[in-house]
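If you are new to this repository, start here. Below is one unmodified record pulled from the training split, so you can see the exact layout before writing a loader.
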Amino acid sequence: TVGAFTGQRCELLAQVCYPLSPEHFMARNWQRCAFAVHGPAARYEALSQERLHGLKLRSLALDSPSEEIHCWMTSQVGAGNESFKTSDPEAALACHRAGGSLYFRAPPEASELLVTALSQQLGMSFGALHSDGAPRSEVETFVSRAGHVTHWHFDFMENFTLQLQGKKRWKLKHSGVRVPVRGCTPQWGRSSEAVRNAAEQQAKCHAQHAEGDFDPSPDEAFWQDAHEVVMEPGSFMYFPAGMWHQVECEEDSISINVSIMGQTWADLIAEAVRQRLLAHPESRAPICMGSITHGREQARCLLRLARRELAALTAPDLLPRALALPRIEHLTLPTASETANGVRLATKYRRNPLAVLFRLHSHRAGDDDEDDEEDLSSEEEQSNVEEEQTFEEEEQSGEEDLSECAQSDEAGGDEDTMHDEANNDARSPSIRARGLKRKKTRDARASAAADAHASRLRTRCGDNERLVAASCLFPDGSKRCAEGHVPFVVHVSFGSEDLGSLLRVQLDTPAPLVPMLEWLGSAPTNFSAGDAWRAINEANGGSEVNGRVDFPLVAAVLSILEDNGFCRRRRKQSVRQNAA
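And here is the target side for that same chain:
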């Protein structure tokens, strides 16, 4: 039975792909070939009742985070479908009553369960999230009428489909493009410039990534040997990214599709190199050349720099231990330690070139971010009051226009697939208001769950951990600094275009350790544990308040920083190689 996921039940991945074990599924099917299994209709009863409003269409539409609902009607002129989008759920429901089919994102509670559990049990870890913690994946709801056909196309995400009501006939065939970065959507035709541009963008990617010749719009003969699968209530199917599929509804149908997306290795490595290049002013400079020859000379120098920076990176630099989920984002450094955990004065460390450590001077003990923002001087407050009085009328008159502009900006994106068009977390004001109470309830449950298992966190999800919501992946998201401590922060891997950090850890630091962290923030690339110990005691020397810091405490702090990606121990072999 697939439903609420608790520590007393097997993993969600094991539930959906039974009788295959997750290990067999990952070895034989994941990113390779489709897999379907059929079960009783009651298999999804708990999921439908607990997370999908008992499949009541009105409730599903009103609770969808999609800003617009996609509607399809069978064309009365020629073959195919006519489609449009509406932000009014009532209009979409009227379309469905008139024989139309609908597509929108599933309620947040369903997404929290399915996206969070599946992405982590598949091993996607931090790559399943954007740098701000938002999930990359989503759950789509398809409410389709009998006779509706979605013509041949393929997607760039991994797909897990659950058939809840009605019957669908699927046809599938490999495309020759494994793990594509764009979908292929010939069913859109070439009706507009936007669609033609999207098709051209897809085609250029597939021309480089396909295994052999690739035809973005095959003729009928190509589909003759396609595989067929009939999905009925209780059926489950996985099909990989890049697999052609066509879907025909034989009955009125409701199904959900979990579209799993993650950060690519190419992005992780390329962003690391970009971060290192941005550390050099010549790489940060805009392209400025007197001629192509002059430009090529600059490019050759920067390519040599890029090769050096890439060669200096190591796997631990890219993947510090603390990057795995679930993850603690806020730590209080110890005030004492009785063991050095194998660290000696001569133990050598190397700073991670992708990490920085610095003090948060804007924080005060006992204050959170909101308090600091409100702590304005009287002069600033007076200035703000004057600005509010000056612009109050303009803000009121323009509030609606600005809101519409913001929604329009957020809704923009590629037209690569039908999924992209609805990949937006914004919700209409009416839906947002209705969701506040549910969000508070979910947050309270998630907080209680996090507190319950915070003492037994592991580095990976699974093994019957209570993984029920995205908030479980970050057990302590508080930014409040402990009383009498000074906040420092470690940022690791922030080479993306938006400079978001893959790992951010706040370190609440007791006063005696502050000089050590300040020294480490500007420490040389290679240093020893003894260097850090001497630096802190030289800074604290003679201080009646701080006194002498014992070496085991310094060793404990270095171990914490190593776990959180700031530095790593240099093994004896690498030390000898460097010396040679």
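Two things worth knowing about this chain: The chain has a mean pLDDT of 80. The two ends are 61 Å apart (CA to CA).
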